[in-house]
Amino acid sequence: MSARQRLIRTAADLLVGSGVEAVTLRGIAKAAGVSHGAPLRHFSGRAELLSAVATLGFTQLLQRGAQLPDGTPRERVTAACHAYVDFAVTNPAMFELMFRRDLIDPEEPGLVSASSAVFDTFAELVRLDRAEADDDRLRPGTDPRLVAASLWGALHGLAQLWLWGGLAGASFAPSPESALAVTLDAYLG
Amino acid sequence: MSARQRLIRTAADLLVGSGVEAVTLRGIAKAAGVSHGAPLRHFSGRAELLSAVATLGFTQLLQRGAQLPDGTPRERVTAACHAYVDFAVTNPAMFELMFRRDLIDPEEPGLVSASSAVFDTFAELVRLDRAEADDDRLRPGTDPRLVAASLWGALHGLAQLWLWGGLAGASFAPSPESALAVTLDAYLG
DNA sequence: CTACTTTGATAGACAGTGTCTACAAGATGA
DNA sequence: TCATCTTGTAGACACTGTCTATCAAAGTAG
Known about the structure:
The structure is a homodimer.
Chain A: H1 3-18, H2 25-32, H3 46-66, H4 73-90, H5 92-98, H6 109-132, H7 144-164, H8 176-188
Helix pairs in contact in A: 1-2, 1-3, 3-5, 3-6, 4-5, 4-6, 4-7, 4-8, 6-7, 7-8
Chain A binds a DNA duplex through loops.
């Protein structure tokens, strides 16, 4: 394994183990057993290293999408939505990093293509579902990619708010699953 | 105006003017014309100061909610949703700070009460709408607060993804308004 | 085999950060 | 007047990311 790959792996382990605050260039170097300046031989800076880690996160998310059980398009979309929220809840640190514009380089080609692949896969599931379903809850003719963007946003916000601790009013603390059920009900009926 | 208030104001100005990266304790002190250690006389640390700024943000958001035009409950909910996304898009730095768990203290009482007030206000709008509407797109009997949480998540994710630059597939870049229209269509029909 | 280049790693430095502590000046109150 | 409290200052400390000089090892061309 190349030194570059080893650094990415070390950083990812540190991320899931100790949270996004712990993923410092020097901390990664120490965990990898190299000097504090060594990572800069393989990455232009912290943002590039963390972008590679985030790309790994999107790849893992895409793999979850590829492992969805067979079934009707409706079942597959539903499963994908559950998988997205589940990924966020079970990998909070990775999920946070993946959307932290200040820590990564949003223009990084690998990152862009990995996140686009996630969106495209999801949008295709939505397209198939809408092509088949006849009970059209949304305005007919709506671009499936627009529906996918809206639905992705809904899932994303649900996960983000729950991680933030903000799905709760003072006396009301719904689980992400129950809120997700409502979301799916709204979009898919 | 107390020194504490002046620091909060200075920090808020710095935030909207130069982004969340610029809101450093020393930068705030310099902008306020005091020494670098002075803010610690009024706040226990950076998190407490930034929590006060974020609380200001939630208060501003709540004021937007209070200025909604009169109309049917449906119109009011719709307007509130537009207002939320519009707030995020027009105040990206403040919006980002308000949900950055690493920069603020999520337990801070003022912050909790301000964000809860936003949620409660929104939930009440949703409750009124659902009490009146007869075309129930969602499962009847669903707790309005759960609907509010789900819908808030949808708005939040939409805003967050758009700010992240991720409402776009490579060849598909919807505006937040068009995606919001689909979201409102899904929830409100 | 020998020179040269390339690559990877190291250690030191620098500015910037949050936070802590010692200190000073001024107001307040007994 | 004297003591105390408040507010602000300046310096230090341990971090951070990044830059640079140095160095060792490993090819590689002659």
